[in-house]
Structures are given as structure tokens and as C-alpha cells.
Amino acid sequence: MDIAQVKRMTGIKTNKHDEYLSEIVPNLIEYASDFCSNTFDPEALPGGVKLFVAKAAEYSMNPSGLSGRSMGDISYSYNTEFPLYIMKHLTPYRRLRVK
Where is average pLDDT lowest: 52-56, 62-66, 68-72, 88-92? Predict the structure, then answer.
């Protein structure tokens, strides 16, 4: 999966985020492989994994996920988990992990 495909899937029209996407896309594919206990070929990803990568990259670009804030000595807390509407795309590809 290349960044041009991610840009088409998310509707990004500019080259402003190309550097970020070239760094995050391989990491998201690795995250999906670890989460699913499954090995994915980056050149032939299943459709659900492609959707996960595109939506997770888009979610990560936005300064969202702020879960807490305080004013004294300025402190911010962020939610570092992906929301369920993004993670659900990986469900069909999960394998049982036996320990």
C-alpha cells in the first residue's frame, strides 16, 4: 500500500502530509499485523486492512483524542487508542493467539 492510495481513500488532495504518511503507513501495517496475529504482505493487503490503515492515518493526523486538560501548570491528556469505528475493520483478520 502506497501513500497515493491512502491519499485517494482519505480524500487528501495536497502533498502537505506526504512525509508523515510515508512514515506512518508502514507502522500502521505492522500494528495491524500485530493486532491480528497475522502477517500481511504490504503490496497485497486485504480490503479491511487498507481501510484501517487509511482511517487510522487520517485519525492520527487530526489533533483529536484530547481526553483531559488542566489549567494550573498546563497538562494535557490524550487518548492513544484508535476508536472502535477504525478497529472494526481488522476484526475479520484476527487469529486466535494461544499462549
Answer: 62-66
